[in-house]
Write a structure and sequence with these properties.
about 20% strand, 14 strands, about 20% helix, about 350 residues, single chain
Length: about 350
């Protein structure tokens, strides 16, 4: 399935049905009266967060969605039926914005979450509604109200706990395939990954987290080089970034430190908040470095990089060092989740004051 993370659609809720003007006419019933019913409401348009979807490809080719209008009112006190609602299934993590103003209307962050995109119009009143003591034969009716119509922009930001960042061919796809159930394309040329891949990493019973692999970033991406910043938005909801560095590049003239600094610079240009996220340095492809040179090369890299954060040495191909890295990531993600869900401590002065008021009452 093709990965699509942006789409524009038009939604139109159903119009309300018109009210009816009708009078009761029956044989041997000399006194009739108004009996025109109201029109039915138009159908609503909803959006539903479906955890089984991971792309907006369904909205790339079908761009207009219309709900049915309500039925008109009829005689014999019959009200019109409401129009059928329509529900648009979207991936979890979809941001729904107004295409004209750019205002964010909804964010689908919870599986099964359902939001109203366009409200159907109310039905019009029949002449039965206008009956009164002074108006016994009303001939008034009202038309149905029009349903809402909106032009919307859909943007998908995948929901993952950890994001992989690095140059093309740094081993990101190999790592996610080694530690999770994801099976991305792996080859010996750059830009093998053309769209984000998600994988679930299980470190123990009922202990897991989601990791995201995005296409490689190169220097000059802010000016459109490579795939540019097209997929960096998918890292904005992560709790941790893993900066994967190829410590043994094929070209001996390539400096891994310069490449790592270029990636950090592009990240800062794109979004300072994303740059400020916790970021760990993961030195990959150590199996390509002679064992007696590993310690010196790692020490030289960290020194020239002036890196103060956590550093992990791994080989994604042989899976050396991957298990301790995954355990450390899980502990970090758990700590972040607990900090987000922790209740703020209450000032004991306010608790004492609340207890005093309850005793007085």
């Amino acid at each position: 399935m093709k990965f699509v993370d942006e789409a524009s659609i038009d939604v139109a809720a159903g119009d309300g049905g018109n009210g009816c003007v009708s009078f009761r006419h029956e044989k041997f019933k000399e006194f009739g009266g108004p009996n025109g019913g109201d029109g039915g409401r138009g159908g609503h348009v909803y959006a539903l967060a479906d955890p089984n979807l991971n792309t907006l490809v369904d909205f790339r080719y079908t761009r207009r969605f219309e709900a049915k209008r309500g039925e008109h009112g009829m005689g014999s006190d019959m009200f019109g039926a409401a129009g059928d609602d329509i529900t648009l299934k979207m991936p979890v993590g979809t941001i729904i914005s107004d295409a004209e103003t750019g205002e964010v209307l909804h964010e689908l962050l919870t599986p099964g979450e359902k939001v109203l995109l366009a409200k159907g119009g109310d039905g019009g009143f029949g002449n039965l509604r206008f009956k009164s003591a002074v108006n016994r034969a009303p001939r008034q009716k009202t038309p149905g109200w029009p349903g809402e119509r909106k032009s919307l922009k859909l943007e998908l930001k995948v929901l993952a706990d950890v994001g992989l960042l690095g140059m093309p061919n740094a081993g990101k796809s190999t790592l996610i395939a080694a530690v999770s159930n994801a099976r991305p394309k792996i080859a010996d040329y750059p830009f093998t990954t053309l769209h984000p891949n998600l994988g679930v990493v299980r470190v123990g019973p009922e202990q897991s987290f989601v990791i995201a692999d995005i296409p490689g970033l190169i220097e000059g991406a802010s000016e459109g080089a490579g795939l540019g910043h097209q997929f960096l938005r998918h890292l904005q909801r992560t709790r941790l970034l893993l900066h994967i560095v190829d410590l043994a590049p094929f070209d001996p003239g390539v400096d891994p430190v310069a490449q790592a600094k270029a990636i950090a610079g592009e990240l800062k240009k794109y979004d300072p908040k994303l740059y400020a996220k916790p970021r760990w340095l993961v030195l990959n492809k150590l199996d390509m470095v002679p064992a007696e040179e590993r310690a010196a090369r790692v020490k030289d890299f960290v020194k020239r990089m002036r890196w103060k954060g956590p550093v992990f040495e791994i080989s994604a191909l042989t899976r050396e060092g991957c298990a301790p890295l995954m355990q450390a990531i899980y502990q970090h993600v758990q700590a972040e989740q607990k900090a987000e869900n922790a209740q703020p401590e209450r000032d004991p002065r306010f608790e004492a004051e609340a207890a005093t008021h309850s005793d007085e009452s």
